[in-house]
Design goal:
By secondary structure, the protein is of the alpha+beta class. The protein is built from 3 helices and 8 strands; from the N terminus they run ααββββαββββ. It has a 6-stranded antiparallel beta sheet, with helices on one face. Strands 3-4 form a two-stranded antiparallel ribbon. Strand 1 and strand 2 form a beta hairpin. The longest helix has 17 residues, at 53-69. The two termini are 22 Å apart. 32% of the residues are buried.
Amino acid sequence: MNLERLKQFAEEGIPFNQFLGFKVKDLQPGTARIEVPIRPEFIGDVLRPALHGGLISTLADTVGGVAAFTQMAPDQRASTVDMRVDYLRPGLVDRPLIGEGRVLRMGNRVAVTEMHIHQGNIDEPIARASAVYNIVRVPSEPA
């Protein structure tokens, strides 16, 4: 997989990622790191204030999927089959959200990933997640 093209696709080719402001900060085979600048619209608990859990789970799913894509062939695509998120502490609204994902197992039909969501200190995660992605081949279109 061409990592620069994957970075561009993850940031600009998926309208939802672009809307949220996801920025790919690092890609290596089997790993990905994505950062999200925080906006007031991301607050889910106005009393604390704390980030919305949907933003956290979306980042986890995205960074896990991008990590899987780093090990896929150009004619392969992935879709989320299952994901579990453990929320460990509130996300603060004064600093970027960071997602780090890595592939635990890459098979012919599924990829298994683990993700850590934090705000600069991976030893104090906001959430941990794991996901399974279905891997399929997409036939090339005739010329």
